[in-house]
Amino acid sequence: MSQSLLLVVAVALVDQDMRVLIAQRPPGKTLAGLWEFPGGKVEPGESPEAALIRELTEELGITVAEPCLAPLTFASHAYEHFHLLMPLYICRRWQGFVSPREGQTLKWVAPRALRDYPMPPADEPLISALLDLLA
Ligand SMILES: Nc1nc2c([nH]c(=O)n2[C@@H]2O[C@H](COP(=O)(O)OP(=O)(O)OP(=O)(O)O)[C@@H](O)[C@H]2O)c(=O)[nH]1
Residue ranges of the Nudix hydrolase domain (predicted)? Predict the structure, then answer.
């Protein structure tokens, strides 16, 4: 059965202590309560990087320059109603202070502890890539 492809961009923001930022999806949304990497859907006509930069301002109130976004890996996962294709970038530099702008709970987590936080099924393989890079 063919499914529509949904393009979502996400980022592992890494702080000076090598911790990664995750956000908990608020109640009422799909996959509520699960922890995810900041990001969101790419709008029509938007580049993946522009979408991510926009989402980071909207969700976290930070400004990221495009050269500070490095491709890390991607997720490809069949959900019930769509197939998710999600490039994951890594970013170690941004301007401003990370703050929850959309009612989400934020947490800086050591890579080895990421598996303690339930994440959407698509994210599971991404954790290994982060551990390889950071742990
Ligand atoms: N940002 C982000 N989205 C993820 C991750 N893993 C994952 O499966 N997704 C899925 O990718 C989509 C992200 O879209 P979004 O964040 O713009 O969507 P949304 O919650 O506003 O809308 P939605 O309630 O329709 O899903 C969601 O379906 C979400 O479940 C992740 O680590 N980060």
Answer: 4-134
